[in-house]
Amino acid sequence: MPVVTFGYDDLVGLIGQEVPMETLLERIPQLGADIHSCDPGTGELSIEFFPDRADLYSVEGAARALRTFLGFEKGLTRYEVESSDVVLNIDPSVEAVRPYMVAGVIEDIVMTDALIRSLMELQEKLHLTMGRKRAKVSIGLHDMDRIAPPFTYKAVDPRSVSFVPLAKDEEMDLQEILEKHEKGKDYAYILDGHDKYPLLVDSNGNVLSFPPIINGTLTTVTERTTRVFIDVTGTDLDAITGALNIVATAMAERGGKVRSVTVNASSKMTTPDLAPRKWSVSIDEANSLLGSSLDGAQMAAALEKMGFEAAPGGKNIEVLASATRLDLIHPVDVIEDIAKGVGYEKFGNTLPTEVTFGALGKGQKASDAARQLMVGYGFLEVTTLMLSSPEVQFGNMRLDPVEVVEILNPISEDHTCLRVSLVPSIMAVLRRNKHRDLPQRLFEVGDVMVGCKRRKHLASAAITSRASFTEVKSLVEGLMRDLSVKYDITPSSLGCYIEGRGADVEVDGRRIGSFGELHPAVITAFELGYPITVFELDLNSLTEGKLDRIA
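RE: above sequence
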């Protein structure tokens, strides 16, 4: 979870009231946070906020929430947004690279050292969390007095534009920034596969930003800055507008005046939009979920304590929420804040009214029974990652590819999808242990994704100098017998087996697995050199009325 660090004096200054440190340490966790550290000597506080509350990732956001939570103010904090003549034009060329940008202007702001530090930390936390390390959202702040609107967001050839990026003294083109600049190296992967890169320029052609990589030195914000231009780019329009609202209101908490920007894209819009969002919550549903008997007025008071504007309206509570509350996606999220406003400690302790006893489901029974049997057969259990790659799952196994669940941002080439079979994972374990003595007999009970549905499988692999089809056939037959499952064995056409030495297992006419001797090409693909027999069965298929007698 993100940890936000700020000074005690700065926090109480923004709250506008003297609040003892002890009170803050007691009450802040009730908002949805943990005290990470507190230094009484320096007055420095580090608070670990829950990931869903991006509006609290700054001292300004925390102060806004605490003002109402501690009772110094009541209800929704509103921010006035005045129009400006600033225009941002979105060129269609960015649609294939990084399609969305929104912006805002902050005027009459006093850029103190504390504010600059807070904004830098806020950017960092937003980039890391909701921004997915800038891939989804990236934020830029610029000294408005050094640039001239209208601004243009477009995609350009990487070698066609040069500017001086932050932390450098010489001009670099966009490709050089990705290859030489520290930030360019860190985030170059975001632009992989694109022949043009996004760029933000003003009416004179001055470069403000090369999003999501780096800003230019020309627009660096300093303590002399009084007007700030905020740009937010990304791949999700809702996410970038939410990030803009959070940054703009943080600066408004410091006395800045928020001004809107006209964004000319496929459709015209004006940002930031800080108008409150409407919610309606059923009083009966809230009481049912909370196990309470609160009336509408009590719920409204609790929500006002949490920074909402709320009023009872018949059977519902009509609620206005801040535009910075990006965590609200369902009325139950508002109900959660009712509980926080009332205070979790006031709900008391009640014992369950019904006596129930837990029991293992059929799936867990099957897994436990399979594990006990395989251990009894002399096999060693392993647990491997569910992440794999198409090359390992299909290429190495000589199997035709099927639909897989792909990983959007894989950490390596070996972890690009969710596996559809356990055998390749066990083979990888054998490969890493090929220096060990033979025989080696391994098994795993684990999850796979078949047809994009989660299934529980049982698989094993045995590598010995005399591994044979007869041996693995006897193993599978003994397993099915001990599980009290009626089955049929038919020839298999899978390419992973030596021809004539592979078989399918069928239950009620449906194939639920296979077994056999692995093809030499499969064995060498995993860098092994001895015969290997394997089997893999779908345990979910076995649980469908087949394991009632397993205790």
